[in-house]
């Protein structure tokens, strides 16, 4: 006669228990439940509201930049719907002068600054990703300490001016040439590279430079594209360093001109300034036109990097 203890320990009983466990239906988390119509409608209205908050200001800025003086005055400032479209503000801005010169300065700063920042960040991240280096831990801790303890504005200003970078383009590049956050993201992505590939390359006689440029970087195109976008947007949007270190107005970037237009209501001298003074162009239309010109490069560049954003950020941020 089979006892209860034998049934509990018999293979059939254990198999039945496993089968029951396999067929047991676990409760699904809330975020995995099938959405209801009310929930979908709520999400839809929420997304529409968020899109409206983002799109409407851009639309108002664009329409105001394309409006004439009478339309802007009748609307009391910002124009919501175009009535008399004119490109006079853009024509004056692009005809030469302070704005076009500032745009060229911003493009140069963005290209050169992004290149310098990526070179420094990639080399730093690769060195920190090699755990076999004897200085790996102290250097990593020192770098991370700068994220919590900054030198301050006055010491940074004294350092930049003390080494002779005042009123130089390099004063807008070198102080922000490296971001610790971006270095840590790159480091995490580099550490995700299969060690077998690196070991095989070393067996074949490859050095550190060859491993970096022929193995690590080709496998890290996604995160490199994302970090490059971060640096490019930062340099393109830069105005604070120009306000601190640049005295020559011919070296101002576009964002500095935009700041003068919006906050200080200073119209750049020249033909455009005369047109604003004579009432041919509304100063508000000029401000909005400069905003649109400053927005175009980022809006054009972002879609090309968007496909790499999720892969680059998630992999680099989670690893290591």
Question: What can you tell me about this protein's structure?
Answer:
This protein starts with a helix and ends with a helix. Helix content is 69%, strand content 0%. The chain has helices at residues 4-9, 11-23, 37-65, 69-75, 88-94, 98-129, 136-145, 153-162, 180-191, 195-203, 208-219, 221-236, 240-245, 254-262, 271-277, 283-318. The radius of gyration is 29 Å and the shape is globular. It folds into two domains: 36-86, no CATH class; 95-318, MetI-like fold, CATH 1.10.3720.10. The chain is an all-alpha fold and 320 residues long.
- Low-pLDDT runs of 5+ residues are 316-320
Number of strands: 0
- N-to-C CA distance: 59 Å
CATH homology superfamily name of the largest domain: MetI-like
CATH fold-level assignment of the largest domain: MetI-like fold
């Amino acid at each position: 006669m089979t006892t209860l203890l034998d049934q509990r320990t018999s293979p059939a009983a254990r198999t039945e228990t496993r089968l029951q466990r396999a067929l047991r239906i676990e409760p699904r988390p809330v975020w995995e439940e099938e959405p209801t119509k009310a929930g979908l409608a709520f999400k839809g209205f929420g997304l529409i509201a968020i899109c409206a908050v983002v799109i409407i200001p851009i639309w108002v800025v664009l329409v105001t930049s394309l409006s004439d003086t009478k339309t802007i005055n009748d609307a009391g400032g910002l124009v919501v719907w175009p009535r008399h479209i004119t490109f006079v503000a853009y024509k004056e801005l692009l005809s030469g002068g302070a704005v076009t010169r500032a745009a060229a300065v911003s493009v140069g700063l963005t290209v050169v600054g992004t290149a310098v920042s990526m070179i420094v960040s990639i080399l730093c991240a690769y060195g920190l990703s090699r755990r076999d280096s004897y200085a790996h831990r102290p250097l990593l801790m020192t770098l991370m300490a700068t994220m919590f303890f900054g030198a301050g504005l006055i010491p940074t200003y004294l350092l930049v001016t003390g080494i002779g970078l005042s009123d130089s383009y390099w004063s807008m590049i070198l102080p922000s040439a490296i971001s610790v956050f971006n270095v840590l993201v790159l480091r995490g992505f580099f550490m995700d590279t299969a060690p077998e590939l690196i070991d095989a390359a070393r067996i074949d006689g490859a050095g550190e430079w060859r491993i970096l440029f022929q193995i690590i970087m080709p496998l890290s195109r996604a995160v490199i594209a994302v970090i490059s976008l971060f640096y490019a947007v930062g340099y393109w949007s830069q105005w604070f360093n120009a306000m601190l270190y640049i005295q020559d107005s011919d070296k101002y970037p576009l964002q500095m001109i935009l700041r003068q237009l919006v906050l200080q209501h200073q119209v750049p001298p020249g033909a455009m300034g005369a047109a604003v003074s004579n009432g041919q162009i509304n100063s508000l239309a000029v401000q909005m036109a400069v905003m649109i010109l400053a927005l175009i490069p980022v809006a054009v560049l972002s879609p090309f990097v968007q496909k790499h954003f999720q892969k680059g950020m998630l992999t680099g941020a989670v690893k290591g």
